[in-house]
Design goal:
This protein has 17 helices and no strands. By secondary structure, it is mostly helical. Among the domains are: about 95-225, Farnesyl Diphosphate Synthase, CATH 1.10.600; about 255-403, Farnesyl Diphosphate Synthase (Orthogonal Bundle), CATH 1.10.600. The radius of gyration is 20 Å and the shape is globular. The protein starts with 19 loop residues before the first helix and ends in a 10-residue tail after the last helix. The relative contact order is 0.14. The structure holds ligand LYHC5SXD. The ligand CC(C)=CCC/C(C)=C(\C)COP(=O)(O)OP(=O)(O)O binds next to helix 5, helix 11 and helix 14.
Length: about 400
């Protein structure tokens, strides 16, 4: 989500009250709530996962989203909002009422607990972003609304870090991005130090809405995830910030990378952290040794990459309209192959579709190995499909379909 900025933000968080810039960020509702800045609880035994996972119970009867049958590549779409030929199986649940409830709770959290996006227009942007529908579509096997909220808060926090520390129009600057992202990582991976510096660190986190949001979102997540799942998430977010830095480096130099380098970058600057919490939201755990299996990692990476390239395609027109230097899979293909952006867009669709097929092959192989792994890869597929549906449905507010 691109939030209008409440003024130029200093990317490096400072102790509360130490800078007028920080003070500007603190206007409006403040107070971090009781969940924020709490240290991770003491290590506790990991509850053993059930041998066979409990069947997911939907909060509401599953309602397939209104959409045409999954489309074969190159088949024209009946909906102008869909990218023609972009292959993805349909999402299995859509529920507007549930999404609205998640959005309402998100606004309450943002306003009352973390002081994020405090102005009316910013609240509207938060609702317009429709994180509620995203998590409802992407996690059809969620245990309940608390689990959906855990995913939604993290999604908002990740976007807030991107908005405030990385996006030029919201205050991110190249010379401070790396330092700001290291501090942002500490919002989910606490600093351990002598009391004096821990206190300074806490004040530093408390001084910035994006940091408060990530800290609070992580607290909620840790309350329902196992320590191994929380650890997995921290690792994925560190990689995400590596990707944010790579993108920022190219943008500040206005350098268009080669296609292979771009794909490497995008594998880090990626929706992966949203996909890999599918088991936490579903109320079960894929044990660390199974998660680490290279075949599972391949399935995670392919589904995450497809989801992120889907974003590149749906975002292209918006990014072109911004007038700022940007790059994405279509633009790097156009540069490397010296072709039109329209041709490059089609080639990017093919890359996306081939990745989805590779994921499906890997998922089919894995699903035969173990019921927990089967459920996990089904969760990855659900996320990929829900994300596709969310992007296609968010055209009016955020995305446009073709160059
Ligand atoms: C929510 C999350 C983990 C995001 C990480 C990666 C990311 C910011 C995207 C995949 C979105 O890409 P982009 O920065 O290009 O954003 P929009 O196109 O403006 O949606």
């Amino acid at each position: 989500m691109k939030a209008p900025t409440p003024g130029t933000t200093d990317a490096l968080p400072a102790a509360a009250g130490s800078s007028p810039l920080v003070a500007r960020l603190l206007y409006g509702p403040t107070g971090i709530g009781t969940h924020s800045l709490r240290f991770a609880p003491a290590l506790q035994p990991v509850p053993a996962p059930p041998a066979v996972p409990e069947p997911p119970h939907a909060l509401h009867a599953p309602q397939p989203p209104e959409q045409p049958e999954p489309q074969a590549p190159s088949t024209p779409s009946s909906s102008s909002q869909r990218i023609e030929g972009l292959y993805c199986p349909p999402a299995v649940r859509d529920d507007r009422a549930l999404a609205d409830e998640v959005n309402a709770r998100l606004v309450e959290w943002a306003e009352k607990e973390v002081g994020l996006y405090p102005e009316t227009e910013l609240r509207d942007a938060l609702v317009g972003f429709d994180a509620g529908r995203s998590v409802v579509l992407c996690h059809p096997d969620a245990v309940g609304i608390d689990h959906l909220m855990a995913a939604a808060r993290l999604l908002i926090g990740e976007n807030a870090v991107d908005d405030y520390f990385c996006e030029a129009e919201y205050g991110g600057t190249a010379d401070r991005r790396g330092a700001a992202l290291a501090v942002a990582q500490s919002a989910i991976d606490p600093a351990h130090n002598i009391p004096r510096y821990e206190a300074d660190w806490r004040a530093g986190l408390d001084s910035h809405p994006a940091l408060r949001s990530m800290r609070s979102a992580m607290d909620y997540f840790e309350a329902l995830a196992t320590p191994a799942q929380a650890h997995r998430f921290r690792h994925d977010i560190a990689n995400l910030y590596l990707g944010y830095n790579a993108e920022g480096d190219c943008i500040s130099r206005e350098r268009t990378p080669t296609v292979w380098e771009y794909l490497v970058q995008r594998q880090f600057n990626n929706f992966r952290p949203c996909l890999t919490l599918t088991d936490s939201v579903g109320g079960y755990e894929l044990p660390a040794h199974l998660f680490a299996d290279p075949r599972v990692q391949r399935a995670v990476t392919l589904s995450s990459n497809a989801s992120t390239i889907c974003n590149d395609l749906y975002s292209l027109r918006k990014e072109q309209a911004s007038g700022r230097f940007h790059y994405s899979l279509p633009t790097v293909i156009a540069a490397e192959e010296d072709c039109s952006i329209e041709d490059a867009f089609q080639k990017a669709i093919e890359v996306h579709n081939d990745i989805v097929h590779l994921f499906e092959e890997q998922a089919a192989e894995l699903s035969a190995t173990n019921p927990l792994v089967a459920r996990f890869v089904a969760g990855l597929a659900n996320w990929m499909s829900g994300n596709h549906e969310w992007h296609a449905g968010n055209v009016g507010t955020r995305y446009a379909t073709s160059p």
